[in-house]
């Protein structure tokens, strides 16, 4: 018969210390228990997939966007939530933190994940997966209004391009799964000649 093994006293003390440290860092400054202090999140509702971050070359401010349901705690009605930081540690929510809503025919099912990049004029542009009913996924863009770019550069609100949709399934030879054609990002073949190219993945 094999005698049962018990954790050593040193291991028990280590586990207790780790538990105490975990408890210490799960009480936020506002006193809400079990709230991660350094985790970025909205005050309520569903959140997933960070998009960005994007450092504004003019202001130096970091802009982080994320997938967000403005209407409830479960996944759905996906929009883009926005926070900013000067140091990647302390984050600020704008007064109206939803930068992009799912409100057009081509993204009624959600403004899914994407990225922020600079266009050929060194201006920020959001590239995202616009999803219409029946989960048809295509790629769209949105930009800060000129008044913001030449003003405070808050990047709080992004205006969808009248050219949307910019990449659809009929532009991609051989695509078979329009319900998994998403997550566009920037790619350059030659870093010495960094002309941006747009790519999106199709899940196998």
Automatic annotation (TrEMBL):
The keyword Translocase does not apply. The keyword Protein biosynthesis does not apply. GO terms for molecular function: hydrolase activity, hydrolyzing O-glycosyl compounds. PROSITE patterns: GLYCOSYL_HYDROL_F32 (PS00609). GO terms for biological process: carbohydrate metabolic process. It comes from the Eukaryota. Residues 39-190 form the Glycosyl hydrolase family 32 N-terminal domain. It holds the Pfam family Glyco_hydro_32N. Residues 183-204 are annotated as: Disordered. Keywords: Glycosidase, Hydrolase, Signal. SUPFAM superfamilies: Arabinanase/levansucrase/invertase. InterPro entries: Fructan_Metab_Enzymes, Glyco_hydro_32_AS, Glyco_hydro_32_N, Glyco_hydro_beta-prop_sf. Residues 1-28 form the signal peptide. Belongs to the glycosyl hydrolase 32 family. This is Glycosyl hydrolase family 32 N-terminal domain-containing protein.
């Amino acid at each position: 018969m094999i005698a049962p093994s018990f954790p050593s006293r040193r291991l028990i003390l280590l586990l207790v210390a780790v538990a105490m440290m975990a408890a210490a860092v799960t009480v936020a400054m506002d006193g809400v228990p079990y709230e991660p202090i350094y985790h970025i999140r909205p005050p309520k509702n569903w959140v997933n997939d960070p998009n960005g971050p994007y450092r504004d070359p003019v202001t130096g401010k970091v802009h982080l966007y994320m997938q967000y349901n403005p209407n409830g705690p479960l996944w759905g009605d996906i929009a883009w939530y926005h926070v900013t930081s000067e140091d990647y540690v302390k984050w600020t929510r704008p007064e109206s933190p939803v930068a992009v809503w799912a409100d057009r025919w081509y993204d009624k099912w959600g403004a899914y994940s994407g990225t922020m990049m600079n266009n050929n004029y060194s201006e920020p542009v959001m590239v995202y997966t616009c999803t219409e009913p029946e989960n048809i996924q295509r790629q769209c863009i949105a930009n800060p209004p000129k008044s913001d770019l030449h003003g405070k550069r808050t990047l709080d609100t992004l205006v969808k391009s009248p050219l949307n949709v910019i990449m659809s399934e009929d532009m991609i030879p051989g695509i078979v799964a329009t319900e998994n054609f998403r997550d566009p990002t920037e790619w350059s073949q030659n870093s010495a000649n960094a002309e941006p190219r747009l790519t999106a993945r199709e899940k196998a």
